[in-house]
Design a protein that fits this description.
The structure is a homodimer. The first copy, chain A, is of the alpha/beta class. Chain A folds into two domains: 2-136, Response regulator (Rossmann fold), CATH 3.40.50; 143-197, Orthogonal Bundle (Arc Repressor Mutant, subunit A), CATH 1.10.10.10. In chain A, 52% of the residues lie in helices and 14% in strands. Chain A has ten helices and six strands, in the order βαβαβαβαβαβααααα. The first copy, chain A, has helices spanning 11-22, 39-46, 62-72, 87-95, 108-119, 127-136, 143-152, 158-165, 169-183, 188-197; strands at residues 2-7, 27-33, 50-53, 77-82, 100-103, 124-125. Chain A has a six-stranded parallel beta sheet with strand order 2-1-3-4-5-6, sandwiched between helices. In chain A, α8 packs across α9 (169-183). The interface between A and B is large, with 37 and 37 residues. The first copy, chain A, binds a DNA duplex through residues 142-144, 157-159, 167-168, 170-171, 173-177, 180-181, 186-188.
Chain lengths: 201, 201
Amino acid sequence: MIRLLLADDQALVRGALAALLDLESDLEVVAQVGRGDEVVTAARDSGAEVCLLDIEMPGLNGIDAAAAVRRELPGVRSLIVTTFGRPGYVRRAIEAGASGFVVKDTPARQLADAVRRVHSGLRVIDPDLAAESLIDGPSPLTGRERELLTHALDGSPVATIAARVHLSEGTVRNHLSAAIGKTGATTRSEAARIAQERGWL
Amino acid sequence: MIRLLLADDQALVRGALAALLDLESDLEVVAQVGRGDEVVTAARDSGAEVCLLDIEMPGLNGIDAAAAVRRELPGVRSLIVTTFGRPGYVRRAIEAGASGFVVKDTPARQLADAVRRVHSGLRVIDPDLAAESLIDGPSPLTGRERELLTHALDGSPVATIAARVHLSEGTVRNHLSAAIGKTGATTRSEAARIAQERGWL
DNA sequence: TGACGGGGATGACAGGTGTCACGGGGAGGT
DNA sequence: ACCTCCCCGTGACACCTGTCATCCCCGTCA
């Protein structure tokens, strides 16, 4: 019997996945949480062996939660199950210590197999995403560029961004100009969108 | 026995919801589709009585799919089940003939109740969203403003948008300026983001 | 020690952007 | 007929933005 923890901020999806996985005779959902920062304690208390983690969660995202599980509970394995198959996510998830990465587009019956493979020590990674992740390579953005791009996501003017990060307007423009060049965009909001699509933020 | 159709583009979520609802003794999932434009024919072929529709779907979105069901199969009721509880969505869904609107944040056990209420002719609408929808009122955007905002979502320059819609650059700037004023934004990309958040696009 | 890259800053400049005033046309009410 | 609203366009203007050149400081690494 494989003991599972489910982490997803959408209660309906969480409950539905639990119903789906409980149908398997060798799987048992022993814990459910809706926030990333509750994963480690819930996994410890419930004695979970495999954690299914969504990426978009309040408190702590699924990738950082996988890293926390890796650090605090070395014997527990993590499987990222997320909506957005952004290439950068795969790389970061594996580097964070996750054992698997599947998107929510995959057929339902494959999920249980993925869980079993992860539990037995294998790695499960969506083949298409793995290829894309290799082609794109790691994020070319520097720390500042990434930070400023996240602030540019909502279309704020440069002056607003500069005030938020306590920098000169010119410096913000310079960093964003570099980010625009690296993403192949022509405006900062387009650059921010591209960077997010690739999982660079 | 209530006969259900599930429409969600994420196969994993769709299958999980099916597993969850099949646990109820009086519910039966008789059809599953991953595209909005397959809803009507699948509902007709399977003899479904209630359709659970996600909004974000390829082919046809869930709101338009609900309208199609209303038109083609008057006896069949629709229940929108979606991730984003944007106020404008609720209004548009009800206007399109949907009988209910719930977000994927709601507890799993409430979904079956919502289905039963919709099947019996009642309306089920998330209370918080209903209130927000009334406060915000309908979209103040004109047709052109809405169209141009959708093109501005990705941060394209005005010249690109003008070329895409075959309009003068000045005209595009004027419409977008009006949209910026109506959304309370200061840039077109911020206006586009705000409009999308409110379900005006 | 010197080279190198990231971060921070300034100044200047061309071009893009948001705003306003003003014009015209057409559809829908009263 | 008149008004109103939406749509389309032009021109002008102040301002914002993206780019480039040129500095500086600091940590790293050969």
